[in-house]
């Protein structure tokens, strides 16, 4: 079995050294040094052999995990429907709002990763897929904004609920907000697809490391947002809280308008 060291001496010029280690072949040395690092050994003629360590599998998985984590964390910080909904829900639902949103978001992403490996990546970036998700998403955004505006007169910071039905609602909302965002689907069908294929070169654990880092990056940011809003609610009165929810509802409506215009543009271009 090949060891983790690769001989870098010239096999043709120094054949004696290569035969010093039984089974040693050019580019594939089974000699296992007693300690890590650049190892040295001398043959009978005093020629120095050097072997240098390759990256271990654990190191490769850690690099995939860390790269995916920071990419997801930076993306999560960008404003969007999911972040807006988290801000609105955290003050009343508690610090669990963000993690539960991300649970639904992550479950949906896991399903999408499976679909991508089944060969549906190009379908996700199709024009009509984009149009369908954009128009459907805009309707969902409009409904959510309408529901938030309609609930404003009755909203109070004392209406904090933590029952199982409430938890399921937050998980479902996280998934719904994700699938209704056409740019989320496009990201996974393009950038995400390329990153997944690269991670796939490292096998199952490479993909698992990439996906784990991606979900954890989202989780860390949304948990931080939820905890910050929850702890800061003592500074809010019911009136200010209603204003915050109204503002979030307005942003959700703006995203709905943006998704609608984005979905209609290819249709109008096709008719012209």
Structure overview:
It is found in: Cell membrane. The chain crosses the membrane at residues 64-88, 100-120, 126-146, 204-228, 240-261. This is Lysine transporter LysE. It comes from Marispirochaeta aestuarii. The chain is mainly α. The chain folds into two domains: 5-53, no CATH class; 57-271, no CATH class. It has ten helices and three strands. Strands 1-3-2 form a three-stranded antiparallel β-sheet, with no helix packed on it. α3 (81-93) runs antiparallel to α10 (238-271). The protein starts with a strand and ends with a helix. Mean pLDDT is 77; it is low at 1-54.
Strand content: under 5%
Strand order within the widest beta sheet? 1-3-2
Average predicted local confidence, pLDDT: 77
Anisotropy-based shape: flat
Low-confidence stretches: 1-54
Number of helices: 10
How many whole angstroms does the radius of gyration measure? 27 Å
Strand and helix order: EHEEHHHHHHHHH
Number of strands: 3
What's the number of structural domains? 2
Kindly report how far apart the N and C termini lie.
65 Å
**Main β sheet profile:** 3 strands, antiparallel
Structural class: mainly alpha
Fraction of residues in helix:
55-70%
Keywords: Cell membrane, Membrane, Transmembrane, Transmembrane helix
Subcellular location: Cell membrane
Pfam family, one: LysE
Organism: Marispirochaeta aestuarii
How would you summarize the topology of this molecule?
Elements: E1 5-7, H1 15-20, E2 39-42, E3 48-53, H2 57-76, H3 81-93, H4 97-124, H5 127-151, H6 164-179, H7 182-189, H8 191-200, H9 204-232, H10 238-271
Antiparallel strand pairs: 1-3, 2-3
């Amino acid at each position: 079995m090949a060891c983790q060291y690769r001989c870098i001496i010239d096999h043709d010029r120094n054949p004696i050294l290569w035969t010093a280690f039984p089974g040693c072949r050019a580019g594939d040395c089974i000699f296992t040094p007693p300690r890590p690092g650049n190892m040295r050994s001398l043959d009978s003629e005093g020629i120095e052999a050097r072997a240098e360590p390759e990256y271990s599998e654990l190191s490769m998985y850690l690099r995939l995990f860390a790269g995916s984590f920071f990419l997801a964390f930076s993306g999560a910080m960008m404003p969007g429907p999911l972040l807006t909904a988290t801000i609105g829900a955290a003050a009343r639902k508690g610090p669990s709002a963000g993690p539960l949103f991300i649970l639904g978001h992550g479950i949906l992403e896991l399903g999408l990763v499976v679909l991508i490996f089944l060969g549906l990546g190009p379908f996700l970036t199709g024009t009509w897929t984009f149009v369908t998700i954009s128009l459907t998403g805009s309707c969902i955004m409009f409904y959510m904004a309408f529901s938030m505006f309609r609930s404003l007169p009755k909203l109070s910071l004392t209406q904090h609920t933590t029952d199982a039905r409430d938890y399921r609602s937050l998980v479902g909302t996280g998934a719904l907000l994700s699938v209704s965002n056409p740019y989320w689907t496009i990201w996974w069908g393009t950038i995400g697809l390329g990153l997944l294929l690269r991670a796939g070169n490292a096998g199952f654990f490479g993909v698992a490391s990439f996906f784990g880092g991606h979900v954890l990056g989202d989780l860390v940011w949304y948990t931080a947002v939820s905890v910050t809003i929850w702890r800061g609610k003592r500074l809010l009165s019911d009136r200010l809280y209603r204003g915050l929810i109204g503002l979030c509802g307005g942003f959700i409506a703006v995203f709905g308008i943006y998704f609608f215009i984005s979905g209609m543009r290819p249709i109008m271009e096709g008719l012209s």
